[in-house]
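Sequence in, structure out.
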Amino acid sequence: MSEVPTKRCSHCGEVKDCAAFAKNAHKSDGLQHYCRPCASKARAKYAASPKGRARMRAKSWAKYVSSPKGRAVRVKARIKYRSSPKGRATANAWQRAHPEKGRATEQVRRARKRAAEIGDRETLSKFASGRWYAEAFIGSPVHLDHVQALAAGGAHAIENLRWLPAWVNVRKGAKADHDVSDPDARAWLIGPPTFEQVTYITRRTLPST
């Protein structure tokens, strides 16, 4: 008759059948150090401790917020906070500190509202950060313009974007270039500089740092 394999529990010190220990592939013998009853007591003790309770709450919260109900509650809470005086003040402060990111976010929101195709967010953000180059080269405030307006089915993508002087963009509106009636704006739209031209020319004229 073969001898039944045994092991000593590191917690209670008793020698028990290996079947009394849970498996653990990271151990040399493939078994846990504690027997099942001792491991159960250790888990219960940890769960009752402040650290254990905090961890259990964090796990429960993570599971809840990832559920459909939790996501819906978070969306409602976010909307409620943003409409509160404190939320509006926080949003305004962020807009003042990050004007380019704020404009890029607003442009994406407008595009989504019109169900327009939206390009890569990172590429759009980099393009929007080039406002300073465009204003330095053109010599006046600029607007980010959609060559084909969102209202006309244009995409909010890098291929459909360009920098225009603010006064030209206002007079252009949602029209196509060839439909602009204002003669000054129409003349400017014949050959506006591309973003690459603005970046290249402006960087060449800037003093090296």
